[in-house]
Structures are given as C-alpha cells and as structure tokens.
Amino acid sequence: MLVIRDSQIQGFIAQSENDIVKLVCDSVIKANHERVENIRPLRLISMAKIGIERARSVGVTRPEDIAAFVALMFEISPKFYRHPAIAAVLTDGNFSMGDRIAQLPDRINDEVWEEACLAYDPKFWFPDVA
Questions:
Q1: Cα–Cα distance between 71 and 75 in angstroms, integer?
Q2: How many Å apart are CA 97 and CA 103, to the nearest integer?
Q3: Contacts with 78 (C-beta within 8 Å, 6 or more apart), sequence order
Q4: Residue 67: closest CA among 76, 82, 77, 55
Q5: SS (H, E, C) 39-98
Q6: The dihedral of CA 14, 15, 16, 18: what is its sign?
Q7: What is the pTM of this model?
Q8: 19 CB-contact burial (10 Å; exposed 0-12 / middle 13-18 / buried 19+)
Q9: How far apart are alpha carbons 95 and 109 in whole angstroms?
Q10: pLDDT < 50: residue spans in the chain
Q11: Are 117 and 126 contacting, i.e. CB atoms less than 8 angstroms apart?
C-alpha cells in the first residue's frame, strides 16, 4: 500500500518560500479581491511576506493554513488573531491549526468579527511609510 506523508503533500503544495508567497498572494487575491485590486504586485508580495512571518510567529506552519491566516489578516484585520475570542479558538489544543482556522466561521459570532474588523490598521503593513 502506498503511503503519502503529510510532509510529502506539503511539498506538492509549496516546495519553496517563493511558492508559499505565491500561494498566499493568490489566496489573498481570490478571497479579498476588492481590498487588494489597487495594490501594486510588488507591494502585495511584501505584504504577503509580512503576513507569512506573522502567521508563523503564532504557530501556523502548513502552507495552506498560512494562506488562510494571511487572507484573514487582509479581510478582517492584520491583528485579528489577538481578539480574545478568536485567540481562544486559535489556541485550542484539541485541534490542529488547520482545523482551528477552518472552525473560525462556526465558532466566532458576527459581533466578534465586527470588533476585529474595527481594529483594522492599514499602517500595520508598512509602519515606516508616512
């Protein structure tokens, strides 16, 4: 019987850092087209790299989970994961990180999403730019 390990599947999804950046950019464009349609491609790549770094800093490791996390950073707020209710889901050790991210729509109510959206700070992406 052929067994394909998760690490091998991850290699198919994104074999290099550039592949992960491309995956994230594609996911962000697909999920948040209106928000990013006027962003220059190189700037979007820079933003994706910032998001990837942030996702990894909170324990997101699989490329598809990173892409989903960064898409939420664009759609909701770059610091959406800091809202206490969202953080509780993302730190729920009963599930894998991918499952936690997938559960967010079911476990987080509209009021919490709205609160997180209100915290959107576009300066997060490039704090040194005036």
A1: 6
A2: 10
A3: 51, 54, 120, 121, 124, 125
A4: 55
A5: CCHHHHHHHHHHHHHHHHHCCCCCHHHHHHHHHHHHHCCCCHHHCHHHHHHHCCCCCCHH
A6: negative
A7: 0.84
A8: middle
A9: 19
A10: 1-4, 7-12
A11: no
> What tokens were used for 119?
């915290």
pLDDT of residue 130: 54
Contact 79, 123 (CB under 8 A): no
Six-digit token string for 70: 């960064």
Cα separation, 120 vs 71, in Å, equals 13
Distance CA 61, CA 121 (A): 25
Q: Quickly tell me which residue has 């996702």 as its tokens.
A: 55
What does the pLDDT read at residue 2?
Answer: 43
pLDDT for residue 4: 45
